[in-house]
Write a structure and sequence with these properties.
Number of helices: 9
Number of domains: 1
Helix content: over 70%
Strand content: under 5%
Oligomer: single chain
Shape: globular
Length: 241
C-alpha cells in the first residue's frame, strides 16, 4: 500500500460523519493494511501488530455502542473473564477445546494464555449476538404472530442457537489462519479437534444467554460490519495464505 493510497484513504475518512461510518472505514483500512502486509510483503511486523488490531476493533465496538449502561460494561467484564478463564483451563488441562498452546503473537501471557484473548471473546460474542438480533428480529416477530408462540421464548432460542452457531462458524474459518500466523498451535498431529467446536458452541451459548437477557442495546450496526470485515479478512487469508 503506497503513501498516496494511505493519504487518500485518510482524506476520505475525514469526510465521514457518523460513528458507524468512521469506525467501519477505520476497520476496513487497518484490515486491508494487514492483508497487504501479510500476503504481499510477508511482514512479520504486521503479524506481530495483531494485538493493536484487536484493541482497535474492541475500542471501535465500544465507541459505536449506543446507550452504554452498566449492564453493557458488566457484560464486557463477564465475557472477558469467562473467555480468559476457559482458555486457561483449556491450555493447562486440556479439559476444554483440546490440546493446544499459544504462541507469542497475541502479546503478554498469564498462566500461558494471552490476556488479549478475553478481548477476542468479547468481539466475537457481541458481534455474533448483535448480528443475529438485527438480522432475525423481524422474522422472529412474524413467526411468533403466525404460530402464536410467545415471542420472548422464540427470540431467546433463536438468538442463542443461531448466535452460537455463527460464533462456531467464525472460529472454524479463523482456526487454520491463526495456526499459520502463529497465534496458537494444536498438539498431537496438529489437526483441529471437533471437540474444540463443541466447546465453542456451549460456551458461546452460555454467554449469549446472558447477552440476550441483559438490558443492552442490540442495534449496533458497526458490530455487523466488523463481523463481515473480519470474516472477509480471514476468508481471504485462508484462501491465499
Amino acid at each position: 500500500m503506497t503513501k498516496k493510497t494511505i493519504i487518500n484513504a485518510l482524506t476520505s475518512l475525514a469526510l465521514l460523519q457518523t460513528p458507524t461510518q468512521i469506525a467501519t472505514a477505520i476497520a476496513i483500512l487497518f484490515h486491508s493494511i494487514g492483508l497487504v502486509g501479510i500476503l504481499v510483503f510477508k511482514s512479520e511486523l504486521i503479524i506481530q501488530s495483531t494485538p493493536v488490531n484487536l484493541i482497535l476493533s474492541f475500542g471501535l465496538l465500544v465507541w459505536t455502542q449506543q446507550e452504554k449502561n452498566w449492564q453493557f460494561y458488566s457484560f464486557i467484564i463477564v465475557c472477558f473473564i469467562t473467555g480468559y478463564v476457559v482458555e486457561v483451563i483449556g491450555v493447562n488441562t486440556g479439559l476444554l477445546f483440546g490440546n493446544y498452546s499459544y504462541g507469542s503473537v497475541l502479546g503478554v501471557k498469564w498462566n500461558a494464555v494471552p490476556l488479549l484473548i478475553g478481548i477476542n471473546w468479547i468481539i466475537i460474542i457481541i458481534c455474533c449476538g448483535i448480528s443475529v438480533h438485527i438480522l432475525l428480529s423481524k422474522a422472529i416477530s412474524k413467526v411468533s404472530l403466525a404460530s402464536k408462540q410467545p415471542p420472548k421464548i422464540l427470540k431467546i432460542l433463536s438468538l442463542v442457537t443461531d448466535g452460537a452457531t455463527l460464533a462456531v462458524a467464525f472460529d472454524w474459518l479463523m482456526e487454520p489462519v491463526a495456526v499459520k500466523l502463529g497465534f496458537w498451535s494444536w498438539g498431537n498431529d496438529g489437526s483441529i479437534p471437533f471437540y474444540n467446536y463443541v466447546c465453542w458452541f456451549i460456551i458461546s451459548m452460555l454467554l449469549l444467554i446472558v447477552f440476550h437477557v441483559a438490558n443492552i442495546n442490540k442495534k449496533n450496526i458497526f458490530a455487523v460490519h466488523l463481523l463481515l470485515i473480519q470474516t472477509m479478512f480471514f476468508l481471504i487469508l485462508r484462501t491465499f495464505l
